[in-house]
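pinging the channel bc i need a second pair of eyes. not urgent but kinda urgent?? the chain im working w is below, pasted from the shared doc
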Amino acid sequence: MRVSDLRRAGHAPSLAAAFMHFEASFMCWVLIGALGIAISEDLGLAAWAKGLAVGIPLIAGSAFRLIVGPAVDKRGPRPIGAVTLVLTSLALLWGWLGARSFGELLAVGVLLGVAGSSFAVALPLAGRAYHPKMRGLAMGIAGAGNSGTVVSALLAPRIAAHIGWHAVLGLAIIPISLVFVAFILLTRNSPAAPAPEAQRLRDVWTHAEARSLAVLYLVTFGGFVGMVSFLPVFLKDAYGVSAGWAAIATAICAGAGSFLRPVGGLVADRVGGEQVLPFVFAVAAAAMLGVASQPAAVPTVALLAVTVGSLGIGNGAVFQVVPRLFPNNVGAVTGLVGAAGGLGGFLLPFALGATKSWTGTFTGGLVAFAVACACALTALVPARRRWRTVVVPSLVADAA
């Protein structure tokens, strides 16, 4: 099937709603990272504190995904997606009117993690709306809503320079509210969800395939969102560039990862995600080692764009495999796998900030991530053959 067949192969309004939900939510989820330079200067944060502040919404998103994923399977994407948008608005309101100390900033970051749970809403919504042969592409298009990072990277620092970073959080309530209305309208006639099933996290975790996918996504998505979120701080601290220069560089890298995600899904539809992922991890590891060698600023950004772009392809490839192996439990498995990705997103900026505080450079954290990519490549080897034939039955049936 071709990309032009999308309209006929499924419910296009659901795909549009999934994309918008993910785009707006992702924009808000990474706002603290996009505003990292302004926030750190205002609050006088050390390097480790910068990494923690950037990472808190990401790991909080992991926790919320574990709740939202099974809830989507049980109640459907429409009501759960609406609730997450409302909670995201409340987090932004708190950040606008409060967040005057580091502790309160972390608390806002925890609640802002709700926006990260959009992952467990948008991808199942898109996957259910399309023919199995098009699910990799459909979920890749919905997942390309992580281009919200580009919006945050380009606009948030510039607006903050004029009105302050607190006001930027307040302004973000406007697009979230507009998306809330559009989401309700577009999903009104979405395909019916499967019958509710009582699912628990341990039912998902008992399956080796779910654990394998979670580990791989911890590296691909964790590397993408963690690096993009921390990149403004990294470039400012490592190279002394201006906030505007860092914003443009971050947008380039975020765009590479976001817009290559559907490409990863499309290619995976044709050859299988298990065939795409080895390339992803090999390229990411090599490029990250290049960054760790501390070249000049422009070559560093080029290498980071290659790294993040390859990880974006990997994100699409992983989620071509998820509905193929778990057709009856996409929401629950998406919640688990997505939670692992959020955990990786927390670990990377925190590791970079900590190594900067302890050693004076980011080299240790960069090398550690390159090693993680190499380990993921090794872990993928025994899973590749199984994924071509295995379809896991209902998790509830297996757990009974």
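so The first helix runs from residue 6 to 9. and The chain has a mean pLDDT of 86. — does that match what u expected or am i reading it wrong
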